[in-house]
Amino acid sequence: MTDNEDRANDEAADPVVGLLLAAGGGRRLGGRPKALLEHRGQPLVEHAVAALRAAGCARVHVVLGARADDVRARAALDGCVLVDNPEWEQGMGSSLRAGLASLAGTRSGTRAGAALVSLVDQPGIGAPAMARVRSGYRDERSLVSAAYAGVRGHPVLLGAAHWAGVAATATGDRGARAYLREHEAEIALVECGDVARPYDIDTEADLVHLEP
């Protein structure tokens, strides 16, 4: 069997690929990149990758930005596709565009049916919530989002049919927000409030959520 045939079989068996946005520089955290903050004895980026894999994503793409070389050196990210975002200072939208481009094949040569998008600074959202959202995948037109008491949050599953539209509207720190708002009626909400806590690690005060 050729490499291309192997790849095609992998994609058919695993249409949903994890996409972890981990490029932030932690401006309100004194310039400490969020990917390298410690949680349960490992960098947040490792914790998030492990959660995506436990949720059923055999393939994971990780978008890096701030101190990307340090993240590569200090975090165990074997088997992940690492995507550099040189425009990370422009906000999360640039990382989402870079990640979707890698999934579409312009960087890695692979294709997926959907991306399960997760944020590195939300360690309270683990594998159970990710798995619930991932299970909502039907085809490339799927749009699925976690909800907390009925309010849309992360993770979000973006079917490949939506990637171009998401990328066109992902600017600043809005990510997919504008696109999802325009397509609200198409989104399948999956309640995750019983299995996850959707806090962000944005400021020094939020560090209380990180466990030794």
Automatic annotation (TrEMBL):
> What are the MobA-like NTP transferase domain coordinates in residue numbering?
18-184
SUPFAM superfamilies, sorted: Nucleotide-diphospho-sugar transferases
Q: Which Pfam families match?
A: NTP_transf_3
UniProt-listed CDD domains: GT_2_like_f
Protein's UniProt name: Nucleotidyltransferase family protein
- Native species of this protein? Streptomyces olivaceus
